[in-house]
Write a structure and sequence with these properties.
The chain has 17 helices and nine strands. The protein is of the alpha+beta class. The protein has three domains: 168 residues, Transcription factor LuxR-like, autoinducer-binding domain (Beta-Lactamase, 2-Layer Sandwich); 119 residues, Beta-Lactamase; 73 residues, Orthogonal Bundle (Arc Repressor Mutant, subunit A). A five-stranded antiparallel beta sheet has the order 6-5-9-8-7. Strands 2-1-4-3 form a four-stranded antiparallel beta sheet, with helices on both faces. Strand 5 and strand 6 form a beta hairpin. The chain is globular.
Length: 377
């Protein structure tokens, strides 16, 4: 299958999955074939190190996934550094730590090695102060290490997976018939609009009607959906026009478009194309090019690891040791989990004491707990 046709089919499956979660495994299977990998996962992890979850996966060993969620995730050496990466950026393990060191970690030995995985690309799709959602495509020894072609294809896919994830969150991951979008989403807490390529509103749910009537964050001059802010207004119109040309044309446009209300509140708009896949039924029923979901934005606060690292100028290696100490305690145990020598752990620990003004491991634990408690409060 030609690449453009393969890519187009993949995007159709990804966006259909945003409305029907049961379609994600097949979408991930096609993502693997297109990007050039064997395994694809969408996971989220609590930035406080308490829980991890596999939303969807393809090609992984279920026992390894369960082992990860049961507690191995706490020893993933990539995670503390990963929190600093911007959404949609593509990264490999060596962006976080040397490959030789990574291969000696407990995480590599107990999760990757049993599955024959040697390399992969990952990208943050959504970050908040308390969670981080990550998309990954990994390779086996037979497929080899990440190359430029895999990077190129992965970068093309990531924005679309992110858009689908954000929309799935808005509709609470409930299965929705594409042709019945207008009826099934009338009770949605977010504002929802079906629009044509020029932004003409074909249908709006109850909260959508309220938003445009208040003219605080949205407006409907001449029956066309728009925003008071000129830049946001242009971004919305551009995404509507692109949506009318198909999934591939949308690209990054219409993903989490920031909207500032007249009263200063912040909102976000996510645009879902309706021109292919199962979503074409909605286009036929309503003559719409896109569905627009508008909801209040969450506060953009740093996670505890980010806040601590920035406050005390910690290096990625020091941050890994800090959180390993919290999870496993002793120097010997930390060295084993991270795949480094006890002397190296002691060196990082000495630096941590100096930078944070502490003198014992228990004080470091209390320091991190203080940041976590402040976030919960």
């Amino acid at each position: 299958m030609p690449e453009i046709e393969q890519f187009s089919t993949l995007l159709g499956d990804i966006y259909d999955a945003s409305l029907d979660p049961a379609l994600w495994p097949e979408a991930f299977a096609k993502a693997c074939r297109y990007v050039g990998g064997t395994v694809a996962t969408l996971t989220s992890q609590d930035t406080l190190g308490k829980t991890a979850r596999f939303y969807y996966s393809w090609g992984t060993d279920a026992r390894c996934d369960q082992h990860y969620c049961d507690g191995l995730f706490k020893f993933n050496p990539v995670f503390p550094t990963m929190l600093f990466f911007a959404v949609e950026e593509a990264h490999v393990v060596t962006d976080c730590l040397p490959r030789e060191e990574f291969c000696r970690t407990r995480f590599a030995k107990e999760y990757l090695n049993p599955q024959g995985l040697v390399d992969g690309l990952f990208s943050n799709l959504d970050k908040s102060a308390i969670t981080c959602a990550t998309f990954m495509v990994a390779r086996t020894m037979l497929e080899g290490f990440v190359d430029d072609e895999m990077r190129r294809r992965f970068a093309l896919v990531v924005p679309h997976v992110r858009r689908a994830l954000l929309i799935s969150q808005v509709i609470d991951l409930k299965t929705v018939e594409a042709a019945a979008l207008a009826d099934s989403l009338d009770t949605l807490s977010a504002g929802m609009f079906l629009v044509d390529a020029r932004g003409r509103i074909i249908h709006a749910n109850l909260n959508g009607h309220m938003m445009v009537s208040e003219e605080n964050v949205l407006r409907a001059a001449g029956g066309k959906l728009g925003a008071p802010d000129p830049a946001a207004d242009r971004a919305l119109l551009d995404s509507f026009m692109a949506a009318s040309q198909g999934d591939a044309a949308v690209g990054r446009r219409g993903i989490a478009v920031p909207l500032r209300a007249r009263d200063g509140a912040r909102y976000v708009a996510n645009v879902l194309p309706l021109t292919s896949g199962a979503r074409r039924k909605a286009q036929v029923s309503y003559s719409a090019a896109a569905t627009v979901f508008v909801h209040k934005a969450t506060l953009d606060l740093p996670s505890p690891p980010e806040a601590i690292a920035q406050e005390f100028d910690l290096t990625p290696a020091e941050l890994r040791v800090l959180f390993a100490i919290i999870e496993v305690g002793g120097v010997r145990e930390v060295a084993e989990v991270l795949g480094i020598s006890e002397a190296t752990v002691k060196t990082h620990l000495h630096h941590l004491f100096g930078k944070t003004g502490t003198g014992r491991q228990a004080e470091l634990v209390r320091l991190v707990a203080g940041y976590a408690n402040a976030l919960r409060g």
